[in-house]
Amino acid sequence: MKRSSLVELLDLLSAHGGGKALVERRGLRTIRWSYRHVADTASQFARELEVREVSPGDRVVLWGPNSVEWVAAFWGCLLRGAVAVPMDHIAAPDFAARVAQQVDARLVLTTRERVGLDASRPALALEDLEAHVARYPTRRYRPPQLSRSDTAEIIFTSGTTAEPRGVVLTHGNLLANLEPLETEIAKYRKWERWFHPLRFLNLLPLSHVFGQFLGVFIPPVLGATVIFQETLNPAEVLRTIKRERVSLVVTVPRLLETLRTKLERDLEAEGRAAWLAGQMSAAEEENFVRRMWRFRRVHRRFGWKFWAFLSGGAALPPQTEEFWMRLGFAVIQGYGLTETTSLVSVNHPFQLGKGSIGKVLPGRELKLDASGEILVRGESVAAGYWQGSEMKKAEGEWLRTGDLGEIGPDGSLYFKGRKKNVIVTPEGLNIYPEDLEAALRRQVEVRDCVVVPLEREGNAEPCAVLLLRDRGADAAAVVARANQSLADFQHMRRWLVWPDEDFPRTSTQKPRTNLIAEYAKTQLGGGRVALPSS
Questions:
Q1: Cα 400 to Cα 467: distance, rounded to the nearest angstrom
Q2: Would you say 94 and 61 are in contact if contact means Cβ atoms under 8 Å apart?
Q3: Could you give the C-alpha distances from 138 to 8, 18, 134, 367, 429, in angstroms and in order?
Q4: Which of the chain's termini has less CB crowding within 10 Å, N or C?
């Protein structure tokens, strides 16, 4: 029987009782909360909302980093029937204030240093949440009658627009995404007991719906433990994986790339670079188990319980995916948007399709239009947008994702890039920046890159913006070698080296292409511009 609301998932929290739910590294301390602790604090916070006269349907802003308190507060909002409004931790204060005003937030939960930023609204520090609600009883809070059509949360996906727009997600949207995953998990539950408890290192922000699925909704289904840490430093991530006996890392492609760089440099420092190259070549035709044994010394660095990366938030470069799979680790990719309540498709962990972003999950439909744009419909598609001071219904039966895709003979989906990023040359030919970036990343000197359009004769031409491992490398030679693997019309004839150590990035570590393109245009146009801050 389908659940009528997300609140019913709290039965799973109670069932797991003293099992470890959340682990957070905070300074020199490690905080560990059981499932019972999370459920009790959620009920206490629901009572706090009732005392503050926050009614069902009222909005509560959650603006802070991943934390045990964040998760408990989110469940507390659901219990009270309040609408959670997650906010990126890195969002600018003025943007957060505009969002709070737009949704008429009755309470803002944030960090201690931000509590006093908006004197017009009640605020509570997340770090003080547990102590603040300790006066309330921990018995299960009785929620109002909720249905799948009730709004659960509003997610504002951008901090750059003058007029914020939030994606309105209902209980039904979120459950429609969770239910097919539960069905698939049930098939493997008898095997899970041999590895229980599964431990997820979740490095995606909880302000994003993909981060919520792996940090809030799926773990109770498995009785899994979720580990949070703020740093993405590869050495720290590696230490956490081994210390906490992590099973799976939930992250973005950027971290897989930096972890790869660290591993390669460590082996090079040990004089084993040639060994790695030889073993990688020898493992090409081997199965998963033989690769694990061949690279057992590498697996020992991660700990023997670790077996997989789950990558989301951006497209994973094929060479990075191949690197980790060749070492004997599973690399699971998913595809989805906030408007599709995260996942539309996902790679099966035991039936991985190389380069694919998986097959469409049950309960949703997908098709490509004449231009190759991915269109989606189903219960998981958002009800509409919050803009101004009210919700605006979504238009059309099919959601236009703005992404381009290709469907393979076996039904697997392949991501081809953002439709708006396609560069149309003066000859009328389409260039997909992702193809050019893939060619650049195959050059050993390239640490990262972005291809942006530069205006030419009313159309555009591609420009490569490079992050080099060695700033003294010959960038012109790098681009020339990359061009050799591309068609003539794809050739990059303009390029520049990014002057900072890294690109400016979003909270999910995507390069901020608008800032990069603006800088490239100004530099190559002969003008001067101040570097955008990261």
A1: 33
A2: no
A3: 17, 15, 8, 48, 64
A4: N
